[in-house]
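We emphasize that the prediction below concerns an isolated chain of 489 residues; any contacts that depend on oligomerization or on bound cofactors are therefore not represented. The input was used exactly as deposited, without trimming of termini.
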Amino acid sequence: MSEPKRLHPITIIFNAAKNVKEVIIPLLLYFAVFAFKDGINTKLLMWAPAVIVLAGLVLMGVPAFISWLRYTYRVEDMELRIEYGLFVKKKRYIPFDRIQSLDFSEHILHRPFGLVKVKVETAGGNDDSAEAEMSAVKKEEAEALKRLIAEAKNSKNPNVISEEEVEVEKESILYKISQKQLLFIASTSGSAGVVLSAIFAFASQFNDIIPFEKFFDELQHIVKAGYVLLGILIIIGLILAWIISVVMAYLKYNDFTLKVVENDLVITRGLLEKRTTTIPIRRIQAIRIQESPFRQPFGYASVSVEYAGSAIDEKAEGLIIPVVKKNIIGTILGETLTDYSFHPEIIPAPRSAKSRYLFMKFCIFAIVTLILSIWLWPYGLLSALLIIGASVLGLYQFKSAGYSITGSQLTLRYRGIDQQTVLMKKNRIQSVDMSVNWFQKRAGLASVETSVMSGGNSSAKVKHIRLEDAKEIYEWYRPNIVKADHGNI
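Result of the prediction step, given as a token string:
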């Protein structure tokens, strides 16, 4: 049993900041309107904002202090026990058996004080949030708590385990990003579209404040001045969005390190915010190798894992290698993830499937091109480039499609924009679905979709493979049927 402990006092500032964040925009708008309103007494105008801010700090600071004062945590009877609540005291007891990992992150305000934010991940937890979060804990205490829980779970007599008796876990580095790789992944992150979408989404919240009508009137003048000028402005905007995405990726993946610690994969990354993510190896359901159009020509790929019992709040949480030469993935992970074959022999889709990948895309974009050509004649004719682009994409999707069965492992390879290669063990697959539509039936083709249990119940699907191959996958997965190692066929 350990004595109840409180979080670091800086938690008061964090709690108050959360409250301020929710009201900051309305306050700023109020001050803007108040300052320019006619008929307001000058002295009142001078003192009113200060009084409002002072009152706000008191109203937000007092609850933040009480929340910190009433929040305690301790370890007792194989449980992490947390008590909290502003007015009503709540208790949350989390058994060690349910705790999958303690993930750490460090913000800028954490580092000077040697603090970390602790996120408790549990089996069967909510997909959108952790079971519990402790916003400011001494790093040494967090590490000791993590080791204590791990040792207690592995010990036959956990009641006699104390923090002093816990041994430091052995670890080895599997991968550490180099500066060259960091610059490469930042330059090819492809997040410019995400940045632009975020800008438009943010701007759309202020329709009443931002003079969009005036902006579009000016834009019409620019269009009338010439399409060349408009094109230059668009290019400049895309370049700025790309630069922002590069900086964001650089900050996010800086010092990315993958370690194996006992039976866990531990990932640390980030410059401004240092994150530590722990993935229990036994909880890994599938391995996903992703090759983007920007990285595949250079032979690079990224590796992520689907794992159960995770509260994944962003895609990168399952990313274990952000960029690496594809041909050395097996060398890096082979000794740790020994059950997986990283270089299976892929059986490709038949040549008769090629037209299936091209035909639908050609029809869709031909219709789009026709509409745009009529609507924006003659400039709409440039949309014919979409047909070429769609055809090229369809061709690459055909070349990517394939599967492999190697002992107890099923590998599916397919492409949306990025090429995905998903490695799955038979005992981790939740379902295998085989579908045959009318057009596929005539050509002797079928589609296969699988799903594994993870934080997002991830799936993989390959289209237009041979019907016989789809049946082979289905029969391989059916229970009580023993198959030979098809990788040797």
